[in-house]
Write a structure and sequence with these properties.
single chain, alpha/beta, Rossmann fold, pyruvate-formate lyase- activating enzyme, 4 domains, 6-stranded parallel β-sheet, 21 helices, 20 strands, globular
């Protein structure tokens, strides 16, 4: 019997951990082939590839991001080969299971919940007696009617085999994200999250996990992401794993964790700030909301002052980048409350701030009680909200405008100095900058025409000509500076109008060549003559004292090869950007 476990990932760089556990657990009785695609691949190409393998059984791993495309493929495969046995599993089909069975006749069996043992027993029945009533935790049809068998007890995770030792995976390890779990379950009860449904936390064998990580690093894995819902729920366990990863990591490897920040003790952060190499760890922290009533309604326990302490300490340490999440549309959080939430979190200046919208996931408390808050949401995945009793669709549109420019202008770090100046000195709050600019962006129709990098600078400058005309000179200089520190050449169509005339440029180059100490000892050590300075640098004028600005400590991303020069003759500041280090 030929068996395939298949998954449609959101992107090529992602991998599916679930189907690898199924393969490892089913061995040696069943030899399972893994097939991974993306949701962007043409359905007919996926169907063709699967069909040509001539399988007897195909199991699909289903999530909100791939269910629509997966069902299309299931339907096509069943039309081509009605005898093909198709199994669905994963969080998207583990709830409302009768509905799936009634509406999609191409599905033969659904595996609900934890699937390793269930899937193996199901394959045994398919291969032998086909008495599916013997298999706990599945939905199947008997006499044309769907039947659900009782759920089984949870597995002992310490007994699960490693899902990583497959030779066919090795060539891709350096190119893709590797997911790893050291525990299952979550101690919290957040009503918008599927993890709240499983009570308690179970752990895998620590030494086996360490051996897996050693194997992954030795075979080229570069990005390893822990999928534990709360990696640091056990302080002793987290400390042991942090110590292990610090001691045994290989160069170039990055580890990502989902952290509950308000329970992280200061001594743990101090340890990481002291011991962890810069860039080794990356934290993802779900803040979601700072509205106390909202958090109470979704049964989310969060001490924001302690969360803020953790984020601030980590940021001050300068070793670990932090990705913070917000969810718009939670119960009783209206537009103005969400504005406060956004500003509360942005004040911490996380390296990345993800603004998402509530998804009414099957099986979650917010979906089961949707009428209490008059939720209107998409019928198909990802079941994103459209409105509720305190948030209109007009409000949703406005917050989506914020999300759009936040991604372009903060998370990509294209112009950190400019944005910092704007949210601190020009607009009342950070949210107001993103909202006003996002609305302007939408009104101009820019969302429909795409953009190149230089367009982002020109469009912001266009917006600020009316919003900050009295400070446009310094803003334009900051934008120029932000561009220059990331690029070796001028933009093809600069948004600035002040050009240095040829005579002034020549005079400056001559003066610097005669007295290189004016630019500092680093420049002196290069020992460049006037012609080489002209060849190797780009000279631009800015309207503020860059050296003073850098000394203020507001900037921490300035490369050493960009030097400031204040010309006392004409009272202007210039920057020299080296085209080569």
């Amino acid at each position: 019997m030929k068996v395939i476990c298949a998954a449609l990932n959101a992107k090529f760089i992602h991998t599916n951990l679930a189907i690898r556990y199924l393969k490892a657990f089913a061995a040696p009785e069943f030899d399972i082939q893994i097939k991974e695609y993306t949701i962007k691949d043409p359905s007919i190409n996926i169907v063709t590839d699967l069909y040509q393998q001539k399988p007897d059984v195909i199991g699909f791993s289903c999530y909100i991001w791939n269910i629509e495309e997966t069902l299309k493929i299931v339907n096509m495969l069943k039309k081509i080969d009605p005898e093909l046995f198709i199994i669905l599993g994963g969080p998207e089909v583990s709830y409302d299971t009768l509905e799936w069975m009634e509406n999609y006749p191409g599905i033969d069996v659904i595996v609900m919940g934890e699937g390793e043992l269930t899937f193996k027993q199901l394959l045994t029945e398919i291969h032998t007696e086909k008495n599916f009533a013997n298999v706990p935790g599945i939905a199947y049809r008997s006499g044309g009617q769907p039947v659900i068998t009782p759920q089984r007890n949870k597995l002992d995770l310490r007994e699960l085999p490693s899902p990583y030792r497959f030779p066919e995976d090795i060539p891709q390890l350096s190119k893709r994200i590797t997911y790893i779990e050291t525990s299952r379950g979550c101690p919290f009860s957040c009503q918008f999250c599927l993890s709240s449904i499983e009570v308690g936390v179970r752990y895998f064998d620590r030494e086996k996990i360490k051996e897996d990580i050693r194997w992954l690093m030795a075979n080229g894995a570069k990005t390893i992401k822990f999928v534990d819902r709360t990696f640091n729920i056990s302080r002793s366990y987290a400390m042991e794993m942090f110590r292990f990863l610090i001691d045994e990591h290989l160069p170039g490897v990055v580890f990502q964790f989902e952290i509950t920040a308000d329970i992280m003790r200061p001594e743990v952060i101090e340890f990481l700030n002291r011991e962890a190499p810069k860039g080794l760890f990356r934290f993802e922290i779900g803040v979601q909301s700072t509205n106390d009533l909202t958090n109470e309604l979704v049964k989310r326990k969060q001490n924001f002052s302690k969360l803020k302490r953790t984020v601030t300490m980590v940021k001050k340490g300068g070793k670990i980048d932090q990705h913070l999440d917000l969810i718009a549309g939670l119960p009783e959080e209206d537009y103005w409350s969400f504005r406060n939430t956004f500003n509360d979190v942005f004040e911490m200046r996380p390296e990345e701030l993800q603004l998402g919208f509530l998804k009414m996931l099957r099986g979650t408390g917010v979906r089961l009680r949707a009428q209490e808050h008059q939720y209107v949401f998409m019928d198909q995945s990802p079941y994103e909200i459209l409105s509720n009793n305190v948030l209109s669709f007009d409000d949703v549109i406005k917050i989506k405008q914020v999300e759009d420019v936040l991604e372009k202008y903060w998370n990509d770090h294209r112009m950190d100095h400019t944005v910092e100046f704007l949210v601190t000195n020009v607009f009342e709050t950070p949210f107001d900058f993103y909202q006003e600019f996002g609305s302007f962006w939408d009104e101009q129709g820019w969302s429909r025409i795409g953009h190149q990098l230089e367009d982002l600078f020109r469009r912001l400058y266009t917006f600020l000509q009316t919003k900050a005309a009295d400070q446009l000179d310094i803003i334009a200089s900051l934008m120029k500076y932000d561009y220059l520190i990331h690029h070796k050449y001028k933009p093809r169509k600069p948004w600035w109008t002040h050009e240095i005339d040829k005579k002034t440029r020549s005079l400056i180059y001559k003066r610097i060549s005669e007295n290189p100490a004016m630019l500092g000892k680093e420049f002196v050590n290069l020992n460049l003559n006037e012609a080489e300075i002209f060849k190797r640098t780009m000279l631009e004028e800015i309207s503020f004292d860059l050296a003073k600005y850098l000394a203020s400590g507001e900037v921490d991303r300035t490369p050493a090869f960009l030097l400031a020069y204040f010309d006392t003759i004409n009272n202007r500041t210039y920057v020299f950007l080296f085209k080569e280090k």
